[in-house]
Amino acid sequence: MTTKKLPIGLSDFKELIENDYYYIDKTKYIQEIIKSSSKILLLPRPRRFGKTLNLSMLKDFFENTGENHKQLFKGLEIEKHEVFELHQGKYPVIFLTFKDVKHLNWSDCLNGLKSVVYYEYARHRYLIEKDTLFPEEKKYFQQVIEGSLPDADYNDALKKLSMYLGRCYNMPVVILIDEYDTPIHAGYAKGYYEQIISFMRNFLSGGLKDNTYLFKGVLTGILRVAKESVFSGLNNLGVYTLLDKEFNTFFGFTEPETANLLKDYDLSNRFNEVSSWYNGYNFGGEIIYNPWSILQFTHRNPDFPAPYWVNTADTGIIDRLATGEGRELKEEIGQLLEGNTIIKPVYDSIVMKDLETGENMIWSFLLFSGYLKTVKNMDFETWELKVPNEEVRYIYRNMIRVWFDRKVRSASLEEMTKALQEGDIKLFEIMLRKVVIQVMSYHDLGGEPEKVYHALVLGMLVWMSFAYEIRSNRESGYGRYDIMMKPKDLKKHGIIIEFKMVDEEKTPEQTLKKAMEQIEKRKYAAELQASGIKEIIKIAVAFKGKELWIEHR
């Protein structure tokens, strides 16, 4: 068992190594960056998956600081490769991080961007004393430091700094940019999307396009923002998302790395718990665990796993896209919550402003943000998708609760679900009617009303997931039931629910009878009976618009 400190929230490679924190060796990443045929690499990954630490490692490896940084890599994988002696400590480095540039308005955002530029110029302020800079270049440098540079001139700040450094060191420059898309997310959410896109396009293109002083450029973020909106004209850009095999083991922990970490902290007996809660990511065919949550769990060793990762983000965009702003609760989210898969097109390049109008864009957004995982590639752009683990399922449950809270008093929901749990089907019927009237609009019921009712009830039953395993549209007996509730305490009653729309030729009573016959004839209760559940409540729901009728036995 090790007594090394865990690097929770630590993203400075030098500090981590010098203070002997626990480190899972990802230094082979350096060799892959050097060997890559792409001069500029964009590596989008979900937040808290080690992007900043990896960029910090690249900085400490490449940068010619006058200090001997070889010691930082002693005994690590990269030391074994010939690129180590060829490239370590040989280059000037520009390191920019936009992770804190998330402001409420464009004016504050622009000031935040200027600060990022200022700090990097200030880090290299020794250049002002060098005779490699011309007088007008020294003036530009001084204006950045003093904050007197006109706004429009910041477009060239990255390009100019790389030129100054390249000339001073007589070596090409390594440009490292962390969380490049954080200001873009903020701009989308707060209404200054066009301004931030325009700034980033000019700023990045200036520094990365046809830059003769550039050795390598590495950018990280969560999403690949569409090329035409930010990376126009960058023909030497290689994009490696979580769908690609390249670089797939360098962000997050692999299964063997996770098993070794738990073993090192004497927690091997909890590996199965950790797997169900924090693994499930699929990066280019490799099973990846969420590193933030694994470190938190190992440090705390709690009685029960908890959702550490989901509590570190502003999920406003996801909540708005998935459940609000005119978008009704999706049946797909209900399906995902139960552990089922959905098949959707996935676009690895996202135009943020199309998220609310392009119905299918949300699935790409959720995948690349870490809220879904790929299961199988169906064709060149269609994937089978699934919720990766229990931790992420927790956030979907909360999303649905918030949606219902906006539409209906949670007291009504609690009363309704409690009635179901206690077998009071009459009260369940009264409360369900009340909820349907509050939540449904006739607009919702166009198209496939059975699916709408199904999704609605499924969403409400999220409130009961502590006591029941909720399943839907699965095989049991000789057919597919609509909803089945399997109690976690097998001594309690199980529940089967079947929905039927009342058509023109039939009465509600006839429809209820047909639904109940279907439950019996197709033996939907078979799965519950096989689990040893003695008491099973069968519920038929007939509906027409907002009117509904219930029968049970």
In words, what does this structure look like?
The chain has 553 residues and is of the alpha/beta class. Helix content is 41%, strand content 16%. It is built from 21 helices and 18 strands. The strands form five sheets. Strands 2-3-4-1-5 form a five-stranded parallel β-sheet, with helices on both faces. The longest helix has 18 residues, at 106-123. The model is unreliable at 325-329 (pLDDT under 50). This is AAA ATPase-like domain-containing protein, nuclease domain-containing. It holds the Pfam family AAA-ATPase_like.
Summarize the structure.
With 553 residues, this protein is α/β, with parallel strands linked by helices. Helices cover 41% and strands 16% of the residues.
**Percentage of residues in helical conformation:** 40-55%
**Termini, distance in Å?**
57 Å
How many beta-strand elements? 18
Name the overall outline: elongated
Helical stretch tally? 21
Class by helix and strand content?
alpha/beta
| Largest sheet: spatial strand order | 2-3-4-1-5
Mean pLDDT, as a whole number?
85
Tell me about the largest β-sheet: 5 strands, parallel
Radius of gyration: 28 Å
Percent in strands: 15-25%
Q: Which stretches are low in confidence, meaning pLDDT under 50 for 5 or more residues running?
A: 325-329
